[in-house]
Amino acid sequence: MTIAEWLRKLRNGEVSSLELLNEQFSRIKSIDGSIRSYLYLNYEQAKSEAIKIDEARSAGEDLPPLAGVPFAIKDNLCTKGIPTTCSSRMLENFVPPYESTVTKRLWQAGGILIGKTNLDEFAMGSSTETSAFGATANPWDVSRVPGGSSGGSAAAVASGLCMASLGSDTGGSIRQPASFCGVVGLKPTYGRVSRWGLIAFASSLDQVGPFANTVADAAEVLQVISGADSKDSTCLDEPVPNYVANLSKPISGFRIGLIKECFEQNGLSPEVKETNLRAADMLQSLGAELIEVSCPRFVDGISTYYLIAPSEASANLARYDGVKYGYRSEEKDNLLSMTTLSRATGFGPEVQRRILIGTYALSAGYGDAYYKKAQQVRTLISRDFQKAFECVDILLTPTSPTTAFKAGSHKDDPLQMYLSDLLTIPANLAGLPSISLPCGFDNLGLPIGLQLIANVLDENRLLQVAHQYEQHAEIMKHAPNNDFILN
Ligand code: GLN
User: Fold this and answer.
1) Atom of ligand 1 nearest to the CA of 354
2) Which domains does the chain have, with CATH numbers?
3) Which end of the chain has the smaller Cβ count within 10 Å, N or C?
4) Residue of higher predicted confidence among 28 and 487
5) What is this structure's pTM?
């Protein structure tokens, strides 16, 4: 059910917030042992919030827009008084003394926190397997990964364990898991949404965004979390338009650009390619014009990203030194060995790998050759996009080259894992808004994602095209069949 449908039921008194919440928690109890999307459940607090909302509703009070809607939050967003681990031993016992801006806005809008969801450690990964607390499974096939790093938030929406959720996207961590789990995932324009209280991975790329069952639900959530924040100087001070108002408007005359290089990739699964091309045809039948465009630097995104993101991560993660907060080793001999051992034990192998790559790329003598060069290529990638947007309104590519892969299959091959973000990373490098939505299934019945990318701050048209496609294509007629878990 969509947020709008639930809100209607809540308003009509067909169901109370508490009943809705209890239903979600009992579903979590029966299914989440097999999916493992949640790291922390917030039952007591959620229950008292739901009761308050029910009382206010029966007293006839005016309620905020999302009153009583249960949300799951990726565990790298700080929640005051509630553990926030980043799926790392380093922050296993961290309880933030403050609330992130995005979650604060959700609670002010009446949203209820169901729980915190699993992720790749410090959001580094594409499968949720680098979590220090165990992997999350894909609800469509529990032997496969849900994607990552926001795999818990995507799986929770896909299996009906929350109404919508938040994730973060540095190189694809919202869109790729959305694609693998058959839900909608939106990465807004860099700076559209505040990052205050988001535990930093790569600050020039990180952005928070929603997962939802429908494009309209994602638009509702974006509406609430967007807008300037005095606590985040990278957050844009631009007015927030109405993201829901234009959704139903026709898209005839829209120019949709198919990025040639993306459809010519070696690793692109033929089924993913065909299904995405069919989605493009559907948009054409709705009156959009299809135009082939070339972004020659698009495919250099991955090598550029794997210099810039680890460089920024190595700086951001320097704060975990065993002194200020986080895990501290027992080593008492001297400061250096205490810090070294804290970091060697507190961080898992993927995080350590990123810190090593980043430190190397930034080190004296290599900074110009690697980091600066990567920044130059980043500029070229942005220019490719700007050129493309001179002749089209929206760009279209598959979200990920493949559908969900088997758990463990990329374990010893980080490069293979990195390649699953080939098509999502360029939008982060250029700061552009981008959405993934389901466009079909492969022959194993696994969902395939369609990625749309818009120009800076053009979320409105992005959502409009996505919504029109969703309404006409009617892909998600069924949810993953989780009954096998119940039986
Ligand atoms: N999978 C990419 C990485 O490992 C992107 C992660 C993200 O977007 N947080 O870095």
Assistant:
1) 10
2) 3-252 (3.90.1300.10)
3) C
4) 28
5) 0.97
